[in-house]
Task: structure prediction
Amino acid sequence: MNIIKKIYEKHYKKLLVIPIVLLILAFVQITVQGISTGDFINKGVSLKGGLSITIEKNADVAVLQDKLDSKFSGADIHVRALSEAGIQVGTIVEATGVESDKLIDELSSEMELEKEEYSIEIMGSSLGESFFQETVKAMLIAFIFMGIVVFFYFRTVVPSFAVILAAFSDIVVTMSIVNLMGMRLSTAGIAAFLMLIGYSVDTDILLTTRLLKRRQGTVMERVYGAMKTGLTMNITTMTAILVALFLAQSDVIKQIMIILLIGLIVDMINTWIQNVGILRIYLGKKGVKDES
Result:
């Protein structure tokens, strides 16, 4: 523990490499995905249009996915299990580029379905694209206003930049991890990223306020004080998220919880390594005592 503390205190500039590399890798992943697929995220039916069929029967997801892919080779089809408390209770099939009647006929044949055993939702592609554009606009506007509020509160460029950079890094890195997981984002997923901005700024403002506004103790003493409060907040929130993930029956809620959980973990790196490092460099140049 003393070795970790010594590295954290003495080599904070070198530790900045970790969040920087994560951000660069995230940009690479998102760029490659955008070039190869045309979208920088994996859009669900609610964002790009298509069919969503909820089936009240269990199925082998992998086997059903293979059969539907071979039957409808030109379509984009995604099969996943519907579960409650970790137990599969049904199956969900999302698809674009395929006629609903043909897909229903194939599913009925494969799974011996009756009409009352499934429900179908259809989202038009133009409406889905409209939802996506509006949610992205809302996210950008929220981020811009967050940046304005942060700048007016601290009234100094470097600390304000550090807070905004941490929030930006949280969003980008979390988005790339979600892409790598193959998660198809719904409108609720975009809402989760909006929530993540708030969670991110919360701990960053706590840290920055402790370092800039308080005068008691050295810089590292103030860092550790802020860290104790910030990590307590994060761990409490993550515990609640894990409980919700286990108990939630809605896929929408599960998607929100997963994104928030990933984002909070990423936020720990960006707040307590990246933001701390930038602020220590800034305060060092201003001649503030840094020894612990």
About this structure: The chain has two domains: 2-42+126-285, 51-123.
